[in-house]
Structure formats: structure tokens, C-alpha cells
Write a structure and sequence with these properties.
The relative contact order is 0.12. It contains one helix and 25 strands. The two termini are about 35 Å apart. The strands form six sheets. Strands 18-22-21-20-19 form a five-stranded mixed sheet, with no helix packed on it. A four-stranded antiparallel sheet has the order 1-25-24-23. Strands 2-3-4-5 form a four-stranded antiparallel sheet, with no helix packed on it. By secondary structure, it is mainly beta. The protein has a single domain, classed as Methylamine Dehydrogenase, Chain H, CATH 2.130.10.10. About 5% of the residues have low confidence.
């Protein structure tokens, strides 16, 4: 074996570093640039599941592939049907989704929305619960320490709770401060939500009986614009800012928080999903699912 010179060694290091970066970074076009992937999640085996805000389909992408395949077809639900939130619940082998269908002849447009649960393996429907009211926006969800699913309704300023094993959800909290509620997640057992309209972050206090109190405004040390999808990772909140094209990490300390931008220059990022050594991002404005390395 020939001896490695310093120059050859440097070339090899550069090559393998570039290869590692290629593994971490990916850009997957979800059918076309108009697909508007609003949310995404990662299923067992590294399968990426992506919804579309412009079509009635949910897509899946297998590891190592750059081709999105149809997984759920809701074209029979009515003209203009599309999807928002996506969440893989591996404990119950369920894909939770938010389905939205415009109400014909309404100006401004009203939507009937539903929480739908599908088998993560086959795509077969397991549960459907229609959100109450003439106009609703099922947007996103998170699984709590109690194994219940907590669901944000952006249009009505509500959070619903679907207890584990239940067939229908119940109202958990309704508050005017939640008009515009979007991203929702638990961090160290505490529920946090953001407000995409007013660029806010809130903690939702819960008493010993499980009753929610008034949202607590978390002061952030720099502004965020269009806070959207939000997940917890490594003791911090991971946030997509659809109005600024940024992905940020938020460190919460009591009623204050510090914001650290980890990615800029994206076209309307609407969702984030931590998955091992990477963060997947739904880049709605580009029709792509993209990944970046997880910060150390």
C-alpha cells in the first residue's frame, strides 16, 4: 500500500468529510415545486412521510430514494382537500394527520377539518374525528406524557385532547391568546405552543387535576416571524419560522427564552422533525423536504 503524503491525506479527509456532509444534507422534491409540503414526519425505518397543502395526498419517501410515492389518497373527500400536520406515533403504529376541505361557496373561505389516523405501515384508516364548528383549522399535534394526542385548532384558538385509545377528542383549552395557535409540543413534560399570527411563544400550565390554565407568554430575546412547526429536541424547542425563512433553536428558562438561528435562506419553512443526526424541514415555498445536520 503506497504511503500517504500529507497532501494525499488532506485530499482523503476532504473527500470523506464531503461524503459525510452529503449523507447529512438532502433535498427531496415532493413531486413538483407546487406541492407545498406543509408538514412531515419520520416513520420507523427512516421512511419520510410528507403532507401536501396543494393536493389531497400524503406522500412517503424511502431511505436513499429521492422519489415521493403516494401513501394516502383523500381525493374523494371533496374539491380542494389538502393536509397540514403529520406525526408518526410509533407506539400505536399510527400516522396522525390534519385534513382540511374547503366549504363550497363561502367567502372568505371556510374549511371543515378532521383529525385522521392511518396505519403507519399500510395507510389504512384507523380513526377519524371531525373538529367542531362551521370553520376550523386542524393544524398540528403532539403526544403528551399521558399518551394523549394534543391538537391545535388555529382558526378557533383551541387545543383539543384525544385520550389514548379514545375515538373522539375533547376540548382542552380555548383562549383568545390562542387565536393563531400553530406549533405544539411537549418539552420535559411541559406543553408549549406558538402563535403564527402574533409571533408568540406560550407555556400552557396544567394543574394537578389535568386542567389547563391561561397561556403564559414566554419572552424571547429576539423576534421570530411566522412561528410554525415546532418540536422538542435535546432539551430545546426546534422552530420553523415561515415568515423569515429560518430554523431556530429556543432555549427556555422560566418565562424567558433565547433564540439561536441554525439555518437561514429557506423558502417558507413550515415544519421541522428531528431524526437522529439530522433535522428534516418542510420547505413549503420550494416544494421540498430538506435535511440539515443536527447541531452538536
Amino acid at each position: 500500500m503506497p504511503k500517504l503524503t500529507a497532501r494525499r491525506l488532506a485530499v482523503c479527509i476532504t473527500f470523506f468529510a464531503g461524503l459525510a456532509q452529503a449523507v447529512y444534507a438532502a433535498e427531496i422534491l415532493i413531486v413538483d415545486a407546487k406541492s407545498q409540503p406543509e408538514s412531515l414526519t419520520v416513520a420507523p425505518g427512516g421512511i419520510l412521510i410528507v403532507g401536501s397543502a396543494s393536493t389531497p395526498f400524503v406522500y412517503k419517501v424511502h431511505p436513499g430514494s429521492a422519489t415521493a410515492e403516494k401513501f394516502v389518497d383523500a381525493s374523494a373527500e371533496g374539491a380542494g382537500t389538502f393536509f397540514f400536520g403529520m406525526l408518526a406515533d410509533t407506539a400505536t403504529n399510527t400516522l396522525w394527520t390534519c385534513q382540511l376541505t374547503p366549504v363550497p361557496g363561502t367567502t372568505p373561505v371556510k374549511r371543515h377539518t378532521a383529525l385522521r389516523g392511518f396505519d403507519l405501515s399500510t395507510g389504512a384508516q384507523k380513526l377519524r374525528w371531525n373538529l367542531p364548528g362551521d370553520n376550523s383549522t386542524c393544524n398540528d399535534f403532539s403526544i403528551g406524557p399521558d399518551k394523549a394526542l394534543y391538537i391545535s385548532d388555529t382558526a378557533n384558538g383551541r387545543i383539543y385532547k384525544l385520550p389514548a385509545g379514545a375515538a373522539s377528542a375533547e376540548l382542552f383549552l380555548e383562549d383568545r391568546m390562542l387565536n393563531g395557535v400553530d406549533g405544539i409540543t411537549f418539552l420535559d413534560g411541559t406543553l408549549y405552543v406558538n402563535n403564527v399570527i402574533f409571533n408568540k411563544l406560550y407555556r400552557i400550565p396544567v394543574d394537578a387535576a389535568g386542567k389547563a390554565g391561561q397561556p403564559v407568554d414566554i419572552w424571547m430575546d429576539q423576534p421570530v416571524k411566522g412561528p410554525d412547526g415546532m418540536r422538542a429536541v435535546n432539551g430545546k424547542l426546534l422552530l420553523a419560522e415561515n415568515g423569515s425563512g429560518k430554523i431556530s433553536l429556543i432555549t427556555v428558562s422560566g418565562d424567558k427564552a433565547s433564540v439561536t438561528v441554525i439555518k437561514e435562506g429557506l423558502k417558507t419553512p413550515t415544519a421541522v422533525e428531528p431524526a437522529g443526526d439530522v433535522i428534516w424541514i418542510a420547505e413549503r415555498g420550494a416544494g421540498k423536504a430538506v435535511s440539515i445536520p443536527m447541531p452538536k
